Amino acid sequence: MKSRMLMMVLVTAAVVLVSWLLNSGIVSLFVPIAMYLAMAQGWNLLGGYGGYLNLGMASFFGLGAFGAAIAAVNWNQSLPVALLVGAVVAILGGLVMGLLSLRLRGAFFAIFTFVSVFVLEAIANTVGITHGALGITLPTFSSLSYNTLTKIWFDAFIVLGLLATVVVWLVERSRWGSSLVAIKEDEPAAEVLGIRTMRVKLLAFLFAALVGGLAGGLYAYQQQFIYPSTIFTDTVTLQVVLMAVAGGGGSWLGPVIGTPLVMGISALMRLIVGSVVVFGNGIPAQLELIIYGLMLVAVGMFLPNGLVGLVKRWRGRSATPAATSERLEARGA
Amino acid sequence: MIGSSAPISDAATNNTRSSLVMDKITAGYHADQWVLNGVSLRAEPERVTVVLGPNGAGKSTVLKVLYGLVAPHAGSVRVGDQDITRLPPEARLALGLAYLPQGHSVFPSLTVQENLEMGLWIYRHDRARREEALERCFAEYPVLKDLRAKLAGSLSGGQQRLLEVARLMLPNPTVLLIDEPSVGVAPNLVDILYEHIVRWRNQGKTVLLVDQNVEAAVSIADYVYTLESGRNRLDGPRDEFEGRLREVVGQWLRLDVLP
Questions:
Q1: Distance (Å) from the C-alpha of residue A232 to the closest C-alpha of chain B?
Q2: Please, are residues A219 and A225 in contact by the beta-carbon 8 Å criterion?
C-alpha cells in the first residue's frame, strides 16, 4: 500500500517533469484532459460507486469558477485565496443541493441535479455580483509567457486529477467504499444494517463539489474570461459523465482510461466530420454535443460497465481476486 | 457509537433476554390513512411470535415501526424496559434488535467478507469487537470463511441465504424481526431460514415473524397475532389458535373478495 502511494507520487512528479520538457503546443492539448480527469474522479464516488446519476457537475464547476473569479476581481484576493473561495462556494452549493435531492432516488435525483445547472446559469446571468451576461475578466499573469502558463495550468490540473484519483483508489479499498456500493445495489438493505445512507451519499456528493469547484476555479484563471452560459452548461456535465462511464464508473481506473479516450475520439471526429460542409456552412457548433450524445448512447448499449468492465468480463467473472485480496489485505483481514 | 440520542447498552455482552412490546401504535405513510390503528403486541424471549393477516393488514409495517424504519404517529415501542419509539435503526441495532428484510438482501458485487463488514457497520470504529464477531461467524459458518474473497453475486442461492443469516447475526442480536421470508425466495431457501428461526428460539432469542405462508409460520409459532385492516384481531398461543386457523383464514379470503 505504501509502495503504491510512493508510486503515485513518482508518477505525478514524472508527468509534471515531462510537461516541462515538451513543446507547449502539445501540452496545451492535454490541459482539458487533465481537468476532466479530476472532474470525472470527483463524479466517480457517488455516480460510479454509489449509483446516483449526478448530472450537476457543471453546477459545481461553475460555482467554483464564479466563486474564484468574484473573489479575485470583486474582492481583490490572491489566486490561492480565490481558489479556496471557489471550493467553499461549491461545497456550500453541494450541501444545499445534496440535502434537497439525495432523498430522491433514481431519475428524480438525476433530474434535480441536471436542472440545477440551468437554475444557476439563470441566476449568474441576472445578479450583479457575477457581472451578469457580461462575464468576468480575471487578472492576468503578464510576467509569465504563454508557454510557461500553459505548463503551469497543465501541472495544476494534473496534480488535482491525480490527487482525486488517489482518494478514489483509497476509498475503493475502504469500508466506506463498500458502503457506497451497498447503497447502489440495495439501499434499503444498507439502511437496515445501520448505515446512515444519507450521510454517506452526502459526503460522496461533497467530494464531487470540492473537486468540481477547484477545477472550476483553476479553469476561470486559465481562461482569463468567464461568462455564465459557457460555464454552467450541460456540455461540461455530459463530458464528465461520459468519460467516467466509458472507462468504467465505480472503478478508480475508469476515468484514467476514459478521459483521454473520449477526448481523443471527439477531437478526431471533429477533424473528420468538421471538414464536411452542409448547406454552405460547416456542421454547426452543436456537433460536439451530438458526438458526446452518440458516444453516451453507445456506451450505455454496448459497454454498461465501461472498458474496465469489459476487460473484467474477458478475464472471467471473478477475475478480481487480485483487487479483492488487496482490499482484504488493506483492512488487515 | 457517537451521536446517538440515547444511551446504548452493549449488545454483544448483553445477554439479558429482552421482550419487545408494541403499545397502541398508530402509523402509516399518509396522515389520516393510517396503516396501523392502535396495534399492540408483545414478543417474548425463547418464543417465536407470528403476525398473520390478509394483504394490506399492516404486517410488514408492524416490523418497520419496531425497527425504526417508519416513525409512528402515536403509541410506543419498548425493548426490555427501555422506550425506543424515537430511536433510529442503527441505535436499535446496537440495543440488540436485528431486521431481515423481504427477498434477497446481499450486495452482489461486494465480496462475502465485505458483505459481512457491512453487517458490522455500527462497530466500524471498534476493531476488537469486529474481529471477535467475524471469528464467531466463521466458526459457525466455516463455508463462508472459505468463500470470503468471492463476490456474493457468484454464490449459490443457498450460500447467499447463509451469508444473509450470518450477516444478520454478526452483532449478536437478541431480538429478531423477520419480514416475509417466503416471498420471492425459492422454497429450499425458506426452509434454511425456518431451521434457523427454530434454533434461535431455542437459544433464547426473541423472534417476531411475519409471513404470508400461514401454515408454515404457525407450525413454528409459539404465539400468534392476527391483524385486519391495521387493527388487532385474534391472538393466542399456537395450540389454542390452531383449531380456529381454518375459520380465520377463510374469513380473510372473503374479505379479500368483498370490499
A1: 35
A2: no
